[in-house]
Write a structure and sequence with these properties.
It is a single chain. By secondary structure, this protein is an alpha+beta fold. It is built from 2 helices and 2 strands; from the N terminus they run βαβα. It has helices spanning 24-35, 54-65; strands at residues 14-16, 44-46. The chain has a two-stranded parallel ribbon with strand order 1-2. It is globular. The termini are far apart. The relative contact order is 0.26.
Length: 67
């Protein structure tokens, strides 16, 4: 196992999470991870088709724009 934060996702540029069961809390967690630099090379995410509200999905988009 690799400890969290050791850079195992260095090449992850696109994170496709569409059509899952991600809600508002999941979007908030994802946005926080992006904001805190835990996904430093992610340039694009897909969260469409999830039960998260449009506002929560926008949190993820905003976090990417703030990088």
């Amino acid at each position: 196992l690799v400890a969290p934060g050791t850079g195992v996702l260095k090449a992850l540029v696109t994170l496709g999470l569409e059509d899952n069961k991600i809600g508002d809390a999941g979007c908030a967690t994802l946005a926080s991870a992006i904001d805190n630099g835990r996904l430093p090379v992610v340039e694009h995410t897909e969260v469409d088709g999830n039960p998260a509200s449009a506002e929560a999905q926008a949190w993820v988009d905003q976090a990417l724009r703030n990088m």
